[in-house]
Design goal:
Blueprint (H helix, E strand, L loop, with lengths): L9 H34 L1 H8 E8 L6 E2 L5 E13 L5 E2 L2 E2 L2 E7 L5 E7 H12 L3 H8 L6 E7 L1 H10 L4 E10 L7 H4 L1 E2 L4 E3 H5 L1 H5 L3 E8 L11 E3 L6 E4 L3 H17 L4 E8 L5 E6 L20 H4 L9 H10 L8 E4 L2 E4 L2 E4 L7 E4 H6 L3 H9 L3 H10 L28 H4 L10 H12 L3 E3 L4 E5 L5 E3 L5 E3 L3 H17 L13 E10 L5 E12 L6 E10 L8 H14 L28
Parallel strand pairs: 2-14
Antiparallel strand pairs: 1-12, 2-3, 3-8, 3-9, 4-5, 6-7, 10-11, 12-13, 14-22, 15-16, 15-27, 17-20, 18-19, 21-24, 22-23, 25-26, 26-27
Amino acid sequence: MSHGAPLPGSYSRASRTRMQFTIAGFLIVALLLSGRLFWLQILDPADNASKVLKTSVQAIPAQRGEILDTRGRVLAHSVERYDIVVDQTRLRKGGEMRTSFERSVPTSDGKTAKETVTVAQASKEIAKILGIQQQQVQRAVTGTRTFAYVFQGATPKQKDEILAVRMPGVYADERDERQYPMGSVGGSIVGYRNQESSLGGVELMEDKTLQGTPGKRAFQIGRDGIRNPYGTSDLQPAVDGKSVKLTIDADLQAYAQQQIADATSKLNGEWGNAMILDIKTGQILASADNVTVDPNDLSRFKGTAGLQPMGFVNSFEPGSTSKIVTFAAALEEGKITPTTPITTPNRYTIDGETFKDYEDHPTWQRTAAGVLARSLNTGTVQVAAKLTPQQEYDWFRKFGVGQTTGTGFPGEQTGIFRTPDKWDPRQRYTISFGQGYTQTAVQTAQIYQTIANGGVRVSPRLIKSTVDADGTETPAPAAPAERVISEKTAAELNRMMENVTVDGSGQTGALKNYRVAVKTGTAESVGSSGTYDAYTISFAGFAPAEDPKYVVVVTIARTQEITSAQTGPVFARIMERALQQRGVSPSTTKPDLYRTFSDKTPNEGSLSH
C-alpha cells in the first residue's frame, strides 16, 4: 500500500459531507420557494394576480348598416380600414433613437432568417405602401410618445404589407370608414359622419338603427404582454346595425338636382329646391337642392351651405302657392263656390289697407276659379274677408302650416305662423296670399298632396323600411293619414288648378301628354337689411290631374326674377320624368274647366303670369 493512497473509509466520509451540504442547500431553496409561494398565494393573492395576469377587455365593433335608396342602391356603407399607429418608445434605446433594428425575413427554403434594417429603410418601405413621403413616416415614428398616428385609413392590403415590414412599435387599429358611393346625390339627405359620430341627415336621424350594438371579448394577458392561452375568454357577440332603405329614388334625385341647379344659376337665386312626393303614400322621392354636399369630402363646404337639405330647414314666405288654402277654407265654410262672381279691380281697398295685382288690368268680372287662375290678390283678399281671422288661422293650421310634417328629419323647421291676435290689420289679409308668415318646401308639398289625395293628408316620410343583417326587410309604419277637407272640395280645387294650367299663370308648367293641376307663387323676400329686396318664386302642382300620382314643388329663393312662370319649365321637366320613369299612362281625357269670367268674356286659354 503506497503512502499516497487514501486511508480506508476517508472517501465515504468526504462524500457524505458534500452530500449533506447539497441536501441542506436544496432544503433552504425549497423553504424559500415555499415561503414565497405561501406569500403569493395565501397572504397576497390579489397583488400577485395583478402582477402575473391582467384581464383585458376588447371591444368588438358592430358593423354599421347601409343607407339605401328606394330601389336598394347603396347611398352609404362602411368599409374596413386601419389607422397605422406607433409607440415611439419602442424605437428608442438608452434614451436615444435607434437607427436600425433586427427583423425576421422568409428565405427561399421556407425558413426565416434575421436581417438588420435601418429605420430609414423601413420608413421608406412603409411610405411606398401608403403612397406618402418617407419623411412623413420618419417624423411620425420619431419621438417619445407611446401613441402617434403614422397614417389614417389604410386598406386591409396596405395594413398587411405594413405589418410585414416589422418596424418595432408600429401596429394597426381597425375601424370602419363611412363611404358614399353616389357622392352628392342626396348628400344632405343621407347625411355624414366623422370617425366618432353622426353629424346630420339620415345618418343622425337613424343613428340608433344603423349603429347596432358592440360586443365584448375578455381575456387574460401575462406580464410579457402575451395572451394566456389557458386564461378565460368570454365573448359577447356584436349585433350588426340594420340597413335603412329610404323613399328617395336616386335617379329622380340626381335629375332633379341637375334641373334645380341649372335653374337657380340661370335666375341668379340664392338657393333652390325641387321636391317630388308620392301622393298616396307620402313618400318623398326626391328633395333636390341647387347645392348639395358630397359626404365623402366635407372640406369643400364652408358654413352650412349644402350641408342641410333646404326643403326641410329653409323657411320662406311662400306667396301665391298658399292661395289654395284660402280658397279651400272658403269652399269648406260654404262662403264661395268655384263660380262665385268676384269683381276684381287692379287695386282694392279693405279696412283701410290697399292691395294691388302684379300687373295692371281693367276691372274684371271674375269667378272664384278665375281669381285663382290669374292669381289675383285683389280677388283673394275678398275671399279671405268672408272668413273670420280665426277661421283663416284654423284652416291654415289644418293644412300643416306652422308645424313640422312628421318626417323626423333633424333640424326640420316649422316656419313662423302667429296666432290671429298678433296679426296687424294688413297681415290679416296678406296671410291669404302667402305673405306675413313662413313655411318650408316640404310643408308646401304636404298641402298639395292633401288636395291631390281627395282631401286626405298623408304625412311625408323619408324611411321606407329597415333591413336586418340577414336580409329580412321590415316596412316602416304607414304614415299617419287625416282627412282635412271633403272629397267634394278637393275635387273642386283640382278643377280650379287645371284652370291655372290652361287659362292662367301656370301655362309654362303644362305637359303635352298629361293633364296637370298647378299653382304659381311669387313672394317678396326680406334681406339682411330687414327690407324686401328680392323675390321667392314657386311652382307647385300634381299630375295626372284626373288620377293624381305625384306632387312636384319647385322653389327658387331670393332672385330678382319677379314672375314664377320661369319655374314652370323646371316643374314640367321634373314632373314628366317622374311620370314616365314610373310608367304612368298618359291622360286620355280633356280637363273639365270652370268659367274664369262671370260675364260673357271667354276663358283666356293663352295668358301667362
